[in-house]
């Protein structure tokens, strides 16, 4: 989905699958902001068409806000697989945006590959509000499911935090175990797991079960990006150790009793 200056660009599809983009001349300003929400690969070609149309006008600047960077998990060359994040980044660079803002990039590699880019980390803003809402005390804990999440939010400023370490099967990539490597869980502690991305939620199920076994009274998940695949896993089941999920609509907006959507307003970050 493409939004230009707060208005969604209207697109249709020809019978053969080609994209038709309705002209949007009335939406073009001197200084423009494109908000890019990736839902499928066709959104990349839509982004191309919109930016090329802007280039034909007298627009002076065009900034890009990427709500979720596609292919961001493929952030290194793995034997047998393509380094697709590099290719997508090169494609976006070729469109020559004045600035590119990425909401919660999965790793710093995204920002290294994208020209004129910067990361936005709204979870660091939401976390104090959520802690206040849940009436956090010194005996409660912020939990990072792995070293990557701990490094991503290293500037969060919270001393009462814990870090897990995941053990994966090298062939399948599936999690085979988790271990608390840093911090402690006081009996009755409320815990908030913080990360950038949730797919089916296996990582958070593992962490939640361990936290409950260690004596946590409630476990919440704060994750910026949440894929629709969450509904195919067991994270939202009644007997799940996760009480509630707090996320944005960067990838979906399907309603569920356990999911609470946090509004990501463009004005706050760009």
TrEMBL record:
UniProt KW keywords: Kinase, Transferase
PANTHER family linked to this entry: RIBOSE-PHOSPHATE DIPHOSPHOKINASE FAMILY MEMBER, RIBOSE-PHOSPHATE PYROPHOSPHOKINASE 1, CHLOROPLASTIC
Organism: Sphingobacterium paramultivorum
Listed GO MF terms: kinase activity; magnesium ion binding; ribose phosphate diphosphokinase activity
GO BP, sorted A to Z: 5-phosphoribose 1-diphosphate biosynthetic process; purine nucleotide biosynthetic process
GO CC, any one term: ribose phosphate diphosphokinase complex
Name of the protein: Ribose-phosphate pyrophosphokinase
One of the Pfam families matching this protein, by short name: Pribosyl_synth
């Amino acid at each position: 989905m493409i939004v230009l200056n707060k208005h969604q660009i209207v697109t249709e599809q020809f019978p053969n699958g080609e994209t038709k983009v309705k002209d949007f001349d009335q939406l073009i300003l001197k200084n423009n902001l494109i908000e890019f929400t990736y839902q499928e690969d066709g959104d990349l070609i839509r982004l191309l068409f919109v930016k090329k149309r802007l280039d034909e006008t007298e627009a002076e600047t065009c900034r890009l806000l990427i709500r979720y960077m596609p292919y961001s998990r493929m952030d290194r060359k793995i034997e047998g697989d393509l380094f697709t994040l590099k290719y997508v980044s090169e494609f976006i660079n070729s469109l020559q945006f004045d600035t590119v803002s990425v909401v919660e990039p999965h790793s710093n590699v995204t920002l290294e590959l994208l020209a004129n880019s910067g990361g936005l980390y709204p979870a660091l803003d939401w976390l104090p509000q959520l802690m206040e809402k849940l009436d956090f005390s010194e005996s409660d804990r912020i939990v990072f499911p792995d070293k990557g999440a701990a490094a991503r939010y290293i500037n969060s400023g919270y001393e009462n935090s814990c870090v897990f370490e995941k053990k994966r099967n090298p062939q399948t990539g599936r999690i085979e175990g988790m271990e608390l490597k840093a911090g402690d869980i006081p009996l009755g502690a409320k815990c908030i797991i913080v990360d950038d991305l949730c797919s089916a939620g296996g990582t958070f199920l593992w962490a939640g079960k361990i936290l409950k076994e260690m004596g946590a009274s409630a476990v919440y998940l704060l994750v910026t990006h949440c894929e629709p695949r969450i509904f195919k896993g067991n994270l939202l089941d009644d007997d799940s150790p996760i009480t509630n999920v707090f996320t944005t609509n960067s990838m979906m907006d399907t309603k569920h009793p356990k999911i609470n959507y946090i509004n990501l307003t463009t004005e706050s970050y760009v």
